[in-house]
């Protein structure tokens, strides 16, 4: 549903239960932030805004610079795990599909390379996302020929293979891709595609990556927002307000 905080709602078929969202963590951090702001200014700060603000702080704490967050979002009333609702690009998506997925949200190919690859400069990938590339790429019984050899343990592998910056949000991962060390299939294919490779190369050698990444995050944060009288500002990020009132009244 976009940037309306729908992923925070609990429920047996809510958005957070969808397969692409199973690895999402940090819900309790948003809960803590919501509790804090509700004590000071109840009914003012939406859960959707808190996600955007927390993302900004996570980028800053990861060394990715600082950017200004637009606020004023309202929280959505609907959360569904339906595949038509949770349209997140997977690691085996093709370059044209990735470009189309971001274009559908009003974002350019440059935005896509900034956001999709830039965010992969921090953190780890679970081996379930890599096993096909390593052992049986496209049913060949062999590794992906575009992949340089890198170390994979039984559980996870650093996305950024630079040993000095796996936890730093910088342009190092773009440099990895040019060396054929992109861990996820889509990332490496972006580095080989004739249309997106120049974007990868430009970012790999840029000195203004933090500013450009921040600007792309702001554009992403404007996708599917609710404003004005749309939606609501939840008292709890996990349930809509009617459920909160009903629970309090017994």
TrEMBL record:
Domain of life: Eukaryota
Ligand binding (heme b): 120
Cofactor binding remark: Binds 2 calcium ions per subunit.
Reactions accelerated catalytically: 2 a phenolic donor + H2O2 = 2 a phenolic radical donor + 2 H2O
Presence of the UniProt keyword Lyase in the record: no
Keywords for the protein's UniProt record, in alphabetical order: Calcium, Disulfide bond, Heme, Hydrogen peroxide, Iron, Metal-binding, Oxidoreductase, Peroxidase, Secreted
EC number(s) recorded for this UniProt protein: 1.11.1.7
Positions of Ca(2+) 1 binding: 2, 4, 6, 15
Region span, Disordered: 1-22
Protein's recorded name: peroxidase
Organism (species): Linum tenue
